[in-house]
Amino acid sequence: MGRIWTRRRPTGTPVSPPAPALYGRTSTSYRTAMVAPAYFAQPTTTRERLIAAAFRVVARDGLEAASVKVIAAEADITPGLLHYHFPGKAALLEAVLREALANYLEASARRREASPPERQLADYFKTSRASLEAERDFFKVRLAFAAAALTNPSLAEVLRDLNDASARETALTLAAARGETDPTPRDVEIGRLLKAAIDGIMLSWLADPAFPIDAAADDIEKAVRAWIA
């Protein structure tokens, strides 16, 4: 959830097609190109199938289109079976966000534990750059939730919880870069700032694929290093 940075594209490599709007139906070409994060790509249980289906529907058709009926059809199950696993649409959509966060925190912790202090920031940004395409649709989904949360207090509370957890994970990385395990209040503050910057950058890139995301990535990395110097 804190990952945004793109891989460098060799000269002559075709540019990806424009990213779709955050709301409303998308083109057939984008539906074909949509890439779910790995943790949603191979569901095994019915619950996982429902979470993956909800993700696909929101990413492809928009949040307003994600009805219980549509999600159940996407998962190839009956609406009644969906209600057996989730009390309603809101609980299922919350599960999409929480499942993605849990996978992000797990992957980030593995990276953090495997990297020595002097490599923490370099590995953090390297991993983030490499994950951009795989995470593109997840950011599209999460930003759609963020927009909806502006008028939905219950959803806003969920997003605050998830954002706090993501920012704290970044703070743990900053502490690890000093060879420490406990983040300082300043680490947490930087984690929050970075989270907000990432969301803004991703929104700009999703709305306009010509947005200079490589330059933004470079500037953010330099800023973080300056903040902790």
TrEMBL record:
InterPro entries: BetI_C (IPR039538), DNA-bd_HTH_TetR-type_CS (IPR023772), Homeodomain-like_sf (IPR009057), HTH-type_TetR-like_transc_reg (IPR050109), HTH_TetR (IPR001647), Tet_transcr_reg_TetR-rel_C_sf (IPR036271). Coiled coil: none annotated. Residues 1-20 are annotated as: Disordered. GO terms for molecular function: DNA-binding transcription factor activity; transcription cis-regulatory region binding. Residues 67-86 bind DNA. SUPFAM superfamilies: Homeodomain-like, Tetracyclin repressor-like, C-terminal domain. Residues 44-104 form the HTH tetR-type domain. It comes from the Bacteria. Keywords: DNA-binding, Repressor, Transcription, Transcription regulation. Residues 1-10 have a biased composition (Basic residues). PANTHER family: HTH-TYPE TRANSCRIPTIONAL REGULATOR BETI, HTH-TYPE TRANSCRIPTIONAL REGULATOR RUTR. This is HTH tetR-type domain-containing protein.
